[in-house]
Structures are given as C-alpha cells and as structure tokens.
Amino acid sequence: xxxxxxxxxxxxxxxxxxxxxxxxxxxxxxxxxxxxxxxxxxxxxxxxxxxxxxxxxxxxxxxxxxxxxxxxxxxxxxxxxxxxxxxxxxxxxxxxxxxxxxxxxxxxxxxxxxxxxxxxxxxxxxxxxxxxxxxxxxxxxxxxxxxxxxxxxxxxxxxxxxxxxxxxxxxxxxxxxxxxxxxxxxxxxxxxxxxxxxxxxxxxxxxxxxxxxxxxxxxxxxxxxxxxxxxxxxxxxxxxxxxxxxxxxxxxxxxxxxxxxxxxxxxxxxxxxxxxxxxxxxxxxxxxxxxxxxxxxxxxxxxxxxxxxxxxxxxxxxxxxxxxxxxxxxxxxxxxxxxxx
Length: 341
Ligand code: CP3
What we know:
Blueprint: H1 3-8, H2 29-37, H3 40-45, H4 47-61, E1 65-67, H5 74-78, E2 83-86, E3 89-92, H6 98-101, H7 107-112, H8 115-127, E4 133-139, H9 141-150, H10 158-161, H11 164-187, E5 192-196, H12 205-222, E6 227-230, H13 236-239, E7 252-254, H14 261-265, E8 273-278, H15 287-302, E9 312-316, H16 326-340
Helix pairs in contact: 4-8, 8-11, 11-12, 15-16
Coproporphyrinogen III (CP3) binds next to strand 3.
C-alpha cells in the first residue's frame, strides 16, 4: 500500500518509511510564513489549517507519513487548565493540586473540547495521497501530569515525583479522556496513534514500572496493536526488556538517539515497529559532513539481515530542532533512500 503501513504490518522492506517527529514546525519557512498570519493555537485548532501544516511537511520533504499537527497539552486545556503559547513555549494558567481535582471537566465535556484534533486528522487524511501514512498522537499520562503540576517537563520534577497519590487520582480522570481521543483519531483515519511520554524518562525504571506502566498497559489494551509508545530517555529496564512487550500490546516503539538501534531491531521476540533514531542535533550538519554522519549511522543497520529490519520506521531520536537547515532534512530523506534502495 505504502511504505509506512507496510512497516506497521511488518512487511520486509529494502527502503524504510521516513517520518520525523516535529517534521512540521519552526525550522520550515512555510511554517514561519503561516505563523506570521496565525497564532500557534489557531494553526492547531482550525482543522483546515492544521491539515495544511501537516501536508506542507510531507510535500516539501517527501516524508512517508504525516502526523497530526497539534500539541500534547490540549487535553489539559480540555480538562479546564487555561493554556497559552508564547515565544518561550506553553504557559499553563493553573497548577494541579488535590483541591483542583474536583474542578476538572467531566469526560464528556473534555472529550468534546478535543474534537478539533480528530477533525484535523480527518481533513489531513482526506488531502493525503493514499500511499502516505498518517499518525495521530496524544501525550502520555505521566508527562501530562508533570505539566499539570509544574507547567513544564524539565527540572528535577520534585513535586510530581513525591505526589504519586495525586497522580493515581488524576490518571483515573485523564486516561479515559486519552482513550477517547485515541479512538476518535483512529476512527478519523490515523494508521497508528503515538503516545509521546517525554517526561517518563525522568523516572527510575522501578518507579516507571510501579506507577506508569499499569496506565500504559490500560491505554494499549483499548486499541491493541494500534498504538506506539515513545519516551525520551528511557532504557530497556523501564519497558521490562528491549521491546515494548513488557508494557502492553503496542504496535511498536520509538527510541531516542541513545539506543543502539541494531539491538532494538534485532531483539529476540520483537514483533512491533521500531521508530528512530538519528540524533536530531546532527541535522545541523550540511553537505558532505551530513552525508558522512548518515552513512555512519546506516552502516550497522544495513549490515543486519533483511528480516531484522522489518518494521523499521526511519527517523530521528527525538524531534527536529528549531534552526535545523531545511536542506539537511531534504538531504537526509534523499540519502537514506539512495543508500538503501
Ligand atoms: O510535526 C509534528 O511532530 C507534529 C506536531 C507536534 C508539536 N508538538 C507541535 C508544536 C508534536 C508531536 C508535539 C508534541 C509535544 N508538544 C511534545 C512531545 C515531544 C517533545 O518534543 O518532547 C511536548 C513536550 C510538547 C509541549 C510543547 N509544545 C513544548 C515544550 C513547546 C515549546 C517548545 C517547542 O519545541 O516549540 C510546544 C510548542 C510547539 N508544539 C510548537 C510546535 C510546532 C512551536 C509553536 C510555535 O511557536 O509555533
């Protein structure tokens, strides 16, 4: 059908599909032009604008999949947290505490407030070539809890880490909302929905297993084989092994640039897709230096037997960084396809 859905199906492929997290965004001139006319929230909330931004990235760089253009903090806004974006990033107008739990919007109202995301998925699907994949996404429950408490996912995260009782209560409200958003994105035409759990790598493997993994398993079980999981900074120990099998029936796993991709691809018992993991900082290289870095990255992967490369979704070990030269993104796509075909 197309490289991306073939990779999800585990079909053998010489040339892997290519998709980048944050492939639509500030490094792009076309995005900057749209941002001069619209605020970030408008680009996300108006489905035809969100679809146009997602499509621009695919058309300009020839990616094999589009991703819903949105942000992972909207579920918090749907639950009643004021949310604004300025040049330094998201600003949440309230912090979660025990007393605030009772003031959160109920599932029906919060779910309705997220309808714009599924609409954006549907419009994006409608405009995409049938052979191009489409990815939906939501934030992971721990990452959203961290944002709700701290307004950011960076720092020592002391308050969320010592508030696991509050996490439990919050997750009871949040997880059903995420499950509804996931279902609606899939019904609107997403081939797979990724859970981005950026802050989960701040937890020890034991805390991850104890507090987070049960919610992840619960989410994965709502759509077996249709969800992918990515958390920056986790190790195999978080997952209970080098594949996603230890934390539920996932369709696959994204891995950051610190993993040896050949270990993950060749892991015994792996069935799902593996997305990653070129270091996004290296996309600031250009020309021959970039080509050399890509060749070095690909060499051990190409040396794997073809069967071990099944399910590989070639991409970055996190998202495209602002300031990345567009030519480097274009070159990455071209060089990978040329080397592997
Ligand atoms: O192309 C794509 O990958 C889809 C779009 C996408 C965005 N955010 C758009 C965005 C995705 C998948 C996200 C996920 C997201 N959002 C994460 C998880 C991935 C990660 O980077 O860890 C997180 C933590 C957020 C929260 C968030 N949103 C932050 C911290 C920021 C500010 C910093 C930054 O990188 O811009 C945003 C804003 C944001 N989300 C922008 C975009 C294009 C920039 C908005 C602008 O100024 O135009």
